[in-house]
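Researcher: Please translate sequence to structure tokens.
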Amino acid sequence: MKGSDAEHLAALFLQRQHLVLLEKNYRCRFGEIDLIMQEGTSLVFVEVRMRSNNYFGGAAASITTSKQRKLIRAARHYLSRLYTTPPCRFDAVLLTGHHDPEIEWIRDAFGE
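Model: Translation complete:
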């Protein structure tokens, strides 16, 4: 499974949880945000991680402090384009396994 496949599965999963997809692969000079979604009045910046197994800490361990800082800077860039700043949070969707992967959704996975 490729990264784009994992992002597609994550987006479908979150849409089934009643989140609305706003953007995929938002890129700016600070980095990339896999998915930007809306839940009610809140913006949700989503990092999608896929691993074939849970060795070496699994998918969650791959979201390092450095990666979090890049995501926060990219989110600030996205927010700077908006007229008003809505409530926001950073979620993670972790996929483990190749065929029919297990999906774990972590709300408020990290923040500033």
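Researcher: Any highlights?
Model: The chain has one domain: 3-110.
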